[in-house]
Design goal:
Layout lengths: L2 E5 L6 H11 L4 E5 L10 E4 L20 H10 L3 E5 L1 H8 L6 E3 L7 E9 L15 E8 L3 E3 L2 H9 L3 E5 L10 E5 L5 E4 L17 H12 L3
Parallel strand pairs: 1-2, 1-3, 3-4, 4-11
Antiparallel strand pairs: 5-8, 6-7, 6-9, 9-10, 10-11
């Protein structure tokens, strides 16, 4: 399985993700510069955390227009896998691949901490390594991570079972305690917490590794 990690000007978690996919999971990994448009060799595209284009305008609003994003959208529409982490989640909402928006945290402070989460769904290829309702802990690092949507959109997310992770202790005021969502088909996942920062036992936690490893295991065995 080949992973592609998009690098925007201002991305700063791209090498962290590559450490997981390439060095821990031993999978081919390509860094994809944001001006590249050919990602036909990639199975899983990851939009990493950081401050794409310095977070000018809204977070992710400029990155959404990078040349690579047309290919990312086509990749998703073909049913292939896309993961957006933190700033990558913001880019996915700006690009219309996921519903809702990420706005300034409730207390207007940047939050850097580890937070408890509940796994709402373990029937996705992304989350099949977790137990249903499992409690995990992942790091967060964001200033604009508060998930927001109107009531109609929130109802749609709930009705279609698109909420994948919820905060056990809401750090930023996200509506419905939403920490991560997927599209209706389940191949596109966006989340504010950083699974790649909880993927090495030497660093104290492997709660995030299950996200990558579960997807890999499911696909490789052809289930």
């Amino acid at each position: 399985m080949k992973f592609g990690i998009v690098v925007f000007p201002g991305s700063n978690c791209d090498r962290d993700v590559a450490y997981v996919t390439r060095d821990i999971l031993n999978q081919p990994t390509r860094m994809v510069w944001h001006q590249d448009t050919d990602i036909s060799d990639i199975d899983v595209i990851i939009l990493p955390g950081g401050f794409s284009y310095g977070d000018y305008l809204r977070c992710g609003a400029i990155a959404r227009f990078s040349p690579v994003m047309s290919s990312v959208i086509a990749h998703a529409q073909q049913g292939k896998f896309v993961l957006g982490i933190c700033n990558g989640f913001q880019v996915l909402t700006e690009a219309g691949l996921l519903l809702g928006a990420l706005i300034k945290n409730r207390d207007l402070h940047f939050i850097c901490d580890r937070v408890p989460l509940k796994v709402e769904r373990n029937d996705l290829l992304w989350t099949q390594g977790y137990q249903s309702d499992e409690n995990i802990v992942l790091p967060v690092a964001h200033g604009e991570g508060r998930f927001y949507a109107d009531e109609s959109t929130l109802a749609q997310l709930e009705d279609n079972n698109q909420v994948v992770f919820r905060y056990r202790e809401n750090p930023n005021g996200s509506l419905r305690d939403i920490a991560g969502i997927c599209n209706r088909d389940g191949n596109v996942l966006g989340m504010m917490p950083h699974p790649e920062r909880a993927a090495d036992a030497m660093l104290g936690s492997t709660d995030g590794l299950k996200l990558f490893g579960g997807l890999l295991e499911k696909v490789l065995v052809g289930v």
